[in-house]
Design brief:
2 domains, alpha+beta, single chain, Arc Repressor Mutant, subunit A, WH-like_DNA-bd_sf, WH_DNA-bd_sf, Beta-Lactamase, IclR family transcriptional regulator, two-stranded antiparallel sheet, six-stranded antiparallel beta sheet
Length: 258
Amino acid sequence: MASKVPAATNTLRVLRFLASRRGPVSAASIAAALDLPRSTVYHLLQVMADEGFVTHLPEERLYGLGIAAFELSSAWVRQDPMARLGAPLLHALVDTVGESAHLALLHGRDVVYVVEERAPGRPSLVTEVGVRIPAHLTASGRSMLAELPRAQVRALYPHREAFSSRAERTAIMGPARLRAELDRTRARGYAIEEGDVTPDFASVAVAAHDHRGLPVAGLAVTFLSHRVDQERRRELVSHLRRTADALSARLFGLPRKD
């Protein structure tokens, strides 16, 4: 049955196609894949770019998903499903490792904390449920940013002004330094943060993924820096990875890794 609103149908087809790619693509590729006139594709892309659902990379003549599309695609996990499915896992993690942990979501250039589990006898943290903190300052935010397509990170942080003024304690105050930190995070396999959110505290974090392998949440363990050596931090990362895999399995039915 033919659509009664072809423009709406084609808009959704373009978004679905972009979501299926590992990186930005050309308008010609979109037109060919969807069997649409190039003029139609260019018009749809312009409207979606104006609304933030598509990012245009003019130097490369490519198009990728924009911030609004990313936020829309993960919107369902911002509410009860994420909190209800994640809370028992965070509780078990904290019982096992004896340190405080949290689960955060990426919302634009911020992370939003949706689950917070405090370990008995550990100091209070600033990461209360509902608190928003610039993502590039946090381990949980870096764990997600490192696994986003690079074009999406460029769209989020196009210039130095995109970085919060709260960053006076961190060396990450511009796109180049953020790229370097995310490169180190990818090479290491997990994110770290030392005193950028709260002096004397550190965090390690990993991301949970959706069925496409894209990050949907960051899980972090936070501790007093001087109390936890590198070997212990690697142990915490191993526990975090198991917890992240379990969360992905609960959210998206993905098989758990051994």
